[in-house]
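Standup notes, protein team

Yesterday: finished cleaning the Amycolatopsis bartoniae set.
Today: Thioesterase structure.
Blockers: none.

Input for Thioesterase:
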Amino acid sequence: MGFLTLLDSLAAETPLIVGGISFGAHLAAEWAVRNPDRCAGLLLALPAWHGEPAGAPASLAAKVSADLVEREGLEKALSLSVAGVAPWLAEELTRAWRRHGTGLAAGLRVAADRPAPTVDELRGLDIPVGIAACTDDPVHPMAVAREWAAALPRAVLRETTLTALGSDRESLGRAAVEAWRVSHAS
């Protein structure tokens, strides 16, 4: 996976603070589990599951989206997927999906099926961790973020909402950074 290889390369000189949103949060934590001596901290937003994805809402949504893209094509799938959602979310999905182009369905399937670090693996990470999650996000349940925060020895969790994210696109990142600062200070 290119992201993990890139982190390996970047961490050759100095430990890194790494992070991501949703699947990106899973990958960042996966890299940290494999490289605890090269990871200075984690900024994680919207973790969607731990361990096997099983019936996690984000995994199911990714699979349904992949099916839709394969069946209807990108533009029709986008039109159907953004109908009735908040304008900011429609804009974000449109930007992200189009960026993936023809690899979108395959990428969604990889994300949907890839295990995240287990709770036991998370317990072994003694590094500062900031976690941000939205209390009103059914795809990335707050309960999962709380489980990650409880498992990670030095994690701090900050809650926000999708509503806040819609009016302030930086609110989720700020929440993760604020949580990391508190975890780093303790």
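Follow-up from PR in the comments: Residues 2-52+115-185 form a domain with the Rossmann fold fold (CATH 3.40.50.1820).
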